[in-house]
């Protein structure tokens, strides 16, 4: 089941049509979104998600999100959820209807069950491939019109990359830059463990600042780990004690196979970090 | 006024909602489109548009478009159009509803009036700016998952580039590659006239093959011009007798100002080529 609430707090039938064909979100992928994990009735990292929504809005020259309205829509969905203990909460905001700027953005929150595959991946890990993203790490700051690091609705490339992974016998992707820098996954951030230190690349290279990555870092620090935000190279993807993809819904997922090569077992490191992450919400 | 027909030939109210919030076209910009110019009741370059739609579908691993159904929907819209002599016909196809793959793609054709600004630009020309696209010309062939040259619904970057142009006092953009190669506009192809020869870059560098560009070339050849499809550099944008942007709805529009510099007057060349293009349909 799904639960749909518009930004004004109205509940609506998620199986009914609500969007006009000339909505710019549909016609141009012109809008922004967030995916929040709700667990035990509580949205995790809602503040960072709303901050990131505001950051994406700013990058796309969309109106600043109405924080209170988003929190209300979030409560509406959570209050009406009758599915499992955990679900994905999508927050979506488009530029609205083409040629009707006065109509304002189209905005809604929707609760969606978590895919079985994602639940399995949390426990079993995933096979990932590295794929060229074709950009250099300085591009995001030079060329803000490319929207690198904005969570826009224009995700066709992210989806195509996952299909390319499937063709290569994997289920996820790590994008790399032209200089061999590690970027991010199509829907996740990359984290590496080496000794008692966690590493992730800086958002300035044109990637999304990770809400779950930040939560994992916070949990790990409380558990005595050090954390570093610094550029990683593709060599770092193999030279480590654990390679992980972090995202709201998949939480911390370990990569067990990279570009077809089985990586050394990182289950113990993963278990410790997964616990540190859960302890943030205990 | 607008006219909306779904791919099954059903006419529908364009002001009513028809799309579910969980349509992947909306959630992920995951779909494809074409914009066809209809003039005097005839869709221009419909065959090349449908071929390009099929090419985009293939790049996005979408089902091959049903040619006959698209032609029927096109006829439906044209037959019910009561607006001006010329209008834009959008063909849109999304991957359909998330988690309901059996439901199949969401597909419709919609007639839309042509914006006054576009009509003015055809006559008066436009100011354009060059903007970095951050990719190299070999990337499209190396990395098909980046969907370069597919006309996907993920156009947020194209729209952001046009807003950047507006910030710089212009109304259009010419994207450039990392090696200073000329790519395309966000919604157009670049054509240069030099002497009696027209030039445009090859689609292999990761740009859309232009339906209008091809029609202009056909018309120009009939009028005694030579045409060449070869890489252009940013220097070529100034070293010419006319710089143009071609797209279905704007037809052939001359660029009168580039990066803030007024270019030599190309009105006469433009008039000759615009006539050669119209003569294709005479």
TrEMBL record, chains A, B:
Its EC number is 4.1.3.38. It comes from the Bacteria. GO terms for biological process: carboxylic acid biosynthetic process. It is an enzyme of class 4 (lyase). Keywords: Lyase. One of its GO terms (molecular function) is 4-amino-4-deoxychorismate lyase activity. Pfam families: Aminotran_4. The keyword Lyase applies. GO terms for cellular component: cytosol. InterPro entries: Aminotrans_IV, Aminotransferase-like, BCAT-like_C, BCAT-like_N, Class-IV_PLP-Dep_Aminotrnsfr. The keyword Phosphoprotein does not apply. Belongs to the class-IV pyridoxal-phosphate-dependent aminotransferase family. NCBIfam families: PRK07849.1-1, PRK07849.1-2. This is Aminodeoxychorismate lyase. It comes from Amycolatopsis alkalitolerans.
